[in-house]
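Why does residue order matter? Because the sequence determines the fold. Keep that principle in mind as you read this record.
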Amino acid sequence: MRTLAWTLHHNLRWRKVLAITLFGLKCALSAALAWQVAYLIAGKEAAALAAVSAVIVLQATSWQTIRKSIERVLGVFIGIALSVIIVHLLGLSALTILLTVFAAALSGLLFKPKGAYLATQIPISALLGLVVGVGEESYPALRLLGALIGGVIGTLLSLFLSPPIYAQKAQRTLVNLLEEVAQTLPTLADTVGGTVACSRQAAIYEHMHAVERKVRCSERELALGKENLRLNPWGRALQDVTENQPYLLEALEKVTRQMERIAWTVQATGQAWNELSSLHCWARRYAEILRIMGEMLEFVAERVYVITQQAQSQSAAWEYPQHSEEEAFAQLAQTQERLKEEEDALLEEKEELLIPVRNVPQTTTRASYRAVVRSSLLMDLRRMLDELEDMLVAVRQLQAG
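Structure:
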């Protein structure tokens, strides 16, 4: 997995540079083409407005560019229409400006649910139509024409110069997260097994919390990767892989949440945890279950990476290590059986504790506390294992598709 981690890190770095360079190139080409087209149609004034619009509407993905182009054209049209109508009816004065901006602001609030940029363009275009349009009567029409030409040029270039960089980056981010969580599970297993000093339990809990927060924070990046494939003719091969991405991330987030809960349980027990783990074999058995989960999660990370590489290279000759998949599902079945045995054993102990006796000794009270701790840990382990099973099934279906 170290080689995989280095490869992913290296790919992410050069793809980030490529994305920045390509975006700058699209801005330059859009401005130049929009200026030339508008200049040939309506002259220098329209050309300048078209070049500005082409640069403004360009966004990270084609879908975002299309949305902003539509919002800009509609915003300019509504704002210009308001200014022209009010000036035509009432003339130009301070009162006219007040009424125009007030009406445009209300219109912006009305259209805000449809798009934030649309809402801001309406009052801006209305005010510019009033102020600039006094000295240049053709300005309203030129502004609308410039917005239309710039939006069309920017959209076309965004469609044809938008390789699925963000989708590929999102896939690598997902693999990185899977790998990081898989590498964190042995540390959590050591903590549960009692081989970690009490002074480090708080730090390990904070680390688990940081991993869980990192998984949650990656949702925006993965959503951008999925959006990068909308109306993108270059990213169809990644479409199926990206569709399962939110599902895998959701399952991974649930796994990390349970890991955080387990670390909190150990930390809350404090000094007594090392005593419990040293006196009772169940803590070491739980730790072993966590290590096996880490191996299964490593398998998921490797398989998602291989599927992504196959989709990008569009190679039908990619060979999958079928024995690895069989071993992963065999591990899953064995771990489910082991966890069921642990749950049954705890249930028997709980039934013994419920037998009413007089003068309950201190040892029984401690046994009750151990039962509560074990019950919490087993519940978290069961939830983690259920999520891992869903991830393994999702990866198998993704590979078959």
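Residues 69 and 151 are 5 Å apart (CA to CA).
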